[in-house]
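Lab notebook: predicted structure, single chain.

Context: the supervisor wants predicted structures on file for every construct in the current expression panel, including those that have not yet been purified. This is the next one on the list. No modifications to the sequence; it matches the entry in the shared construct table.
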Amino acid sequence: MSGGDGKEAFVSDERIRTALESLSVPMWEELIRDFTHQNTMIFRPYLNANKESLLQWLGESKFYRIFNELVSRGLIQFFSQPNLKTTRPTDAYWTAHIIYNARLSNIRGEPRPSVKRSWGEVMSKEAIAASLGTTPYKVGQIIKRMQEVPFSEFENEDINDYCFWATDPKAYKRHKALLARNTYAKRLPDPFFN
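Prediction complete. Output recorded below exactly as produced.
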């Protein structure tokens, strides 16, 4: 998709639309496999912004085959980044879930979970860390963050974002910065379809 001068060839809506109409699905699949990250960041927002119109114009089969190939390419590019650190937001969710259920069981006076453990031991940092496959320090940090900023006081009402933040605030901050720079949701629909 790069032109001879190093600039992207399919920047305008008209050029993307012409390419979508003229190239076959196998040609698109082959082309997308060679996309750079910049190509993906140009092409995917166009598909997202014009999804309903493109579904009617190209047909569901062609649209989804191109779109799925593009999503696959984006995932390959994402996971190919050097020094990629993954974060498991579910650690915060399961930490809260284990603590809540252990407290509730204790309040209700339910029998101990085993002869050797009490409900207090079930919700200890060490026990939670062992069940999640992480360290007690990380569990302690999650608990501390969730106590300092309860979900009701979090910046938005998305439980996934909250768990992500509670698990790793630095990764959450990087993610938010990436979303702010991301053009997927920022491209306006193609006027051709209006």
